[in-house]
Amino acid sequence: MTAIQAHFRAVAPPVVLMGAVLVLWQVACWAYPHPEPGPVSVAATLLHLMGKAYFWHNAAATGRSFLLASGISIAVGGALGLLIGSSRLLSWYLAPLLMIFQTVPKITLYPIVLELFGLGMAPKVAFGVMHGVIPVYFITSRLVAGVRKVLLRSARVMRLGAAERFYFVIVPAILPDMIATLRVSVALCLLGVLIGEMFASHSGLGFMAVNAINLGDTPVTLAVGFFLAFMAVGINTLLLYCEHKLRH
Amino acid sequence: MKTGLTAIPYALRLLLIVVLVGLWQVFCSIGLLGTGIVPAPVTIWHDMCAVMGQSASRAALWLSLRDILIAALIAGAGGIAVGMIVHPIRLLRAALEPYLASYYAVPTFIFYPALITVTGSGRLPIILISIMLGIVAMITTTLTALDGVSRSIVRTARVFGLTPLQNVMYVRIPAAAPMLLSGLRLCVSYAFIGVIASEFIMSDAGVGYQIAYAYDNFDTDTMYGYIGCVVVLAAATTLGFDMIAAEPVKREGA
Amino acid sequence: MTENGQTDVPCVELRQVEQRFTTRKGGNVHALGPLDLTLRRGEFLSIVGPSGCGKSTLLDILSGLARPAAGQALLNGQPIRGVPDGVGIVFQEDASFGWLTVENNIAFGLKRRGLARDDIAARVEHALDFMGLRRFRTSYPSQLSGGMRQRVCIARTLVMRPSLILLDEPFGALDQQTRLLMGDELLRLWRETNATILLITHSLDEAVMLSDRIGVMSARPGRLIKLVETGWPRERDSTVVSSPHYGDLLSEIWAPLRAESNHHMAANNA
């Protein structure tokens, strides 16, 4: 099998599935006249939107907040995970607290976030971090605790200090799995940012969507939703590629 | 003596939470945390009691809780079923995998209003959106769990001549049980988020609606009362789940 | 130096060493000892014993990963505190670093030690040849067989030029043929490096084939119940298995071990 054939085999099934769903949807729209827009009109709306400057202005606002929220979540959650995951004592005392925070539907805390951060970019980023940071912590700490003991013992016998152990053994050992699961946490950051935009902001794709919802403009809502879905799949594919590069 | 030894860490863990809440109270009392930002725990406790004292609020809480449970159960069972069906069909799985992987980056709520125009308003779209939110986590977990069932177990089952259904019921599900349980926990927390967030966005009943309503009317006491109830409820559910889920893991470790 | 390459200078001395553990449920386990053992410099000593007899605990004490609860453990006359210099250890499980190529795995310890680049390169080249890994230098461990991965771990330990090499069932996960061949290689590297080797194994054949002396341990708490001199010449390889003396040695260590294992099983069933 050539590389192109292999590539085709990987790409063809999802594309065919998506095509089938879209065709079914369009056919359903023609067959049963309905207020819901079909894929053709959603695509037309999206193309129309993509020609407008304000759309890209909002997309850029979402992108900025998303990058910032992901960066903070990974840095803080990763550090917490490394620290707490490598100590049984700390995990015992701190893990339940973080777990409780994780279970709370963050949206209920939005009045508090508004009080603390006001309107604008800060509450969006805060929402993104609130959604992403604990999953990153969980993943990291689970991976750290799961590093095979024999590797840690080897590191000790080589007389590596704690910092060296982290940098040369624990971090490279968990990195591929880390990226695999970061895909999920980064997605949660985007979700958080969008929720923030829907409730606590006057810019961004989330704000556009909530505006369209309030105006009952379903084609725009769906167009924004699908644009976000494409972006999400794109980010996901990029991270998947990084993961494959890191795995041997 | 032995039980006494093992009980101490649990007690200390509880103590830590008590101390933290105590510190929060003290900070609020001496004005380090402005009461305008976060009220003191005692205040929230009073708000919660006031909320729970009204039968209308209890009904709102119950309504949300009921729908959370329904959504979580359907998402869990449905996710396991879909996972079981998709797992052996390689082509179908290859077609679904990229969408499953990036599913959670898409804010499902955006499709909630569109759903209302199809189903009409009421509890149905709320439950549906919560199922949509949770079921993919369960499908993914089921697929991963089935991948993790060792080949020797699968082959043993084949040697015993089990039918495909028996194989699923007596071998694959029990072998994958610990992971499936964690998937179910995800379903519960997604159902929590799904129900309360949908009530928040567009609804006329339930806790999410009550919080939004209280916020819009500057009724912060009621708002914090409801938020407190949701936090306690969410924490209790997850911790309860953890206790159940921890059992088989412990047995494995012993 | 005697004719088989050993000296009478002690490398490791254990005096009345004991180890105890507290289990998670608060119980107390007497894992090891009291145990007395002296390893002569340059000797190849194997330890065999029933499962759970504290063999690995002994290794942890020697490598400084654990402190004995009682007694003294000396390396070259100095008490062992922390991981001592000049001790290398190879574990049963695969300890190769999956994220590094074979040559980077081998160079890992040397780089952390901050050696000069030329020196590192020279040592790695030598180890690649010595362990027959040259073809795989740029491969990653996941592309290698279990035996090859274990060679990587041995090479990684060897380049540090340890004077004491501890082997914790290094061939336990390998098939019989590979074990025999690895045994030959182990004998060769022992001769060429003049290191002292302590091998922990559950394979009696391996112990008899490789060692100058074999220590038989009792069931928990592990004590040394028999010490057998094999009397093999320093120049030896896996062909010793066909000598009549081999069978004698095997039965000599099997007799006490069999009694001990039976005793252990009976105690567990009681």
UniProtKB/TrEMBL annotation, chain A:
Protein name per Swiss-Prot or TrEMBL: ABC transporter permease subunit
Membrane topology: Multi-pass membrane protein
Record keywords: Cell membrane, Membrane, Transmembrane, Transmembrane helix, Transport
CC per GO annotation: plasma membrane
PANTHER family associated with the record: ABC TRANSPORTER PERMEASE PROTEIN MJ0413-RELATED, ALKANE SULFONATE ABC TRANSPORTER-RELATED, MEMBRANE SUBUNIT
ABC transmembrane type-1 domain: residues covered: 59-239
InterPro entries in the record: MetI-like, MetI-like_sf
Stored Gene3D superfamilies: MetI-like
Family: Belongs to the binding-protein-dependent transport system permease family.
Pfam families found in the cross-reference section: BPD_transp_1 (PF00528)
Annotated transmembrane regions: 12-33, 66-85, 92-113, 125-145, 166-199, 219-242
UniProtKB/TrEMBL annotation, chain B:
Transmembrane segments: 12-38, 68-89, 101-120, 126-146, 179-203, 223-241
A Pfam short name: BPD_transp_1
Subcellular localization(s) per the UniProt record: Cell membrane
InterPro entries xref list: MetI-like, MetI-like_sf
Keywords: Cell membrane, Membrane, Transmembrane, Transmembrane helix, Transport
Protein's GO biological process: transmembrane transport
Top-rank taxon: Bacteria
Protein's membrane topology: Multi-pass membrane protein
GO cellular component terms, semicolon-separated: plasma membrane
Stretches assigned to the ABC transmembrane type-1 domain: 61-245
PANTHER family found in the cross-reference section: ABC TRANSPORTER PERMEASE PROTEIN MJ0413-RELATED, ALKANE SULFONATE ABC TRANSPORTER-RELATED, MEMBRANE SUBUNIT
Family in the record: Belongs to the binding-protein-dependent transport system permease family.
Protein's name according to its UniProt entry: ABC transporter permease subunit
TrEMBL record, chain C:
Keyword Ion transport among record annotations: no
SMART domains: AAA
Pfam families: ABC_tran
Segments forming domain ABC transporter: 12-244
CDD domains in the record: ABC_NrtD_SsuB_transporters
GO molecular function (one): ATP hydrolysis activity
UniProt KW Nuclease keyword: no
Source species, domain of life: Bacteria
Keywords annotated in UniProt: ATP-binding, Nucleotide-binding, Transport
Family from the record: Belongs to the ABC transporter superfamily.
Protein name per its UniProtKB record: ABC transporter ATP-binding protein
Organism of origin: Acetobacter garciniae
